[in-house]
Amino acid sequence: MTAYPFALAISAVVVLLLLWLLRSRRLKEKYAGIWIVLALAVVVVGVFPDLAGWLARLVGVQTPINLVFLLGFVVVLAVCIQLSSELSRAEETSRTLAEEIALLALRVEHVERSAVSTGDGQEGGTTS
Q1: pTM tops 0.70, yes or no
Q2: Each residue of 33-57: pLDDT tens digit?
Q3: How many whole angstroms separate alpha carbon 77 and alpha carbon 89?
Q4: What span, in angstroms and rounded, lies between the C-alpha atoms of 17 and 8?
Q5: SS (H, E, C) 60-118
Q6: How many whole angstroms from its chain centre is CA 9?
Q7: How far apart are alpha carbons 30 and 113 in whole angstroms?
Q8: Helices 50-59 and 64-125 sit at what angle, rounded to 10 degrees?
Q9: What CA–CA distances, in Å, run from 43 to 3, 18, 22, 53, 58?
Q10: What pLDDT, on a 0 to 100 scale, did the predictor assign at position 25?
Q11: Angle 67-69-74 from CA coordinates, rounded to 5°
Q12: In 3-state terms, what secondary structure has residue 51?
C-alpha cells in the first residue's frame, strides 16, 4: 500500500471533521477555509501523485517530500502569525473593556455617593 491512498483517506476524514465542526459552530468559517484548501490540495496530490514531482522540479527542490515539508512549515508559520494577530486583537479588546468597566464602576460609585449625600440632607430637612 502506498502513501497516496492513506493521504486521501486522512484528507477525507479531515474534510468531514471540518464540516462537522462548522455545522456545530465550534469552528468559524474564516479558520476553516485554510484547512479545507489544504485538505483539497492533499486530495489533488493523492489523485495525481506526479503533480508533487512536477511542482518540486518547477521550484527546484531535489525531492517532492522536501517540498511537502517546506510547504508544511510555511503553513504552520502562517497559522502561527494569524493566531498571534487574533490574540493581540483579543487582548486589546479585553484591556479596553476592563478600562470601560473600571470607569463605569467609578461613575456608579460617584452617583451612589451623591445620592446618599442628597438623601441624608432631604431626610434631615423633612421631619414632621
Answers
A1: no
A2: 887 888 788 788 878 888 989 999 9
A3: 18
A4: 14
A5: CCCCHHHHHHHHHHHHHHHHHHHHHHHHHHHHHHHHHHHHHHHHHHHHHHHHHHHHHHH
A6: 26
A7: 48
A8: 90
A9: 12, 15, 20, 15, 20
A10: 87
A11: 95
A12: helix
**pLDDT tens digits along 5-22:** 787 888 888 888 888 988
Residue with cell 525531492: 63
Burial tier of 55 (Cβ tally within 10 Å: 0-12, 13-18, 19+)? middle
DSSP-derived secondary structure for 25-40: TSS-HHHHHHHHHHHH
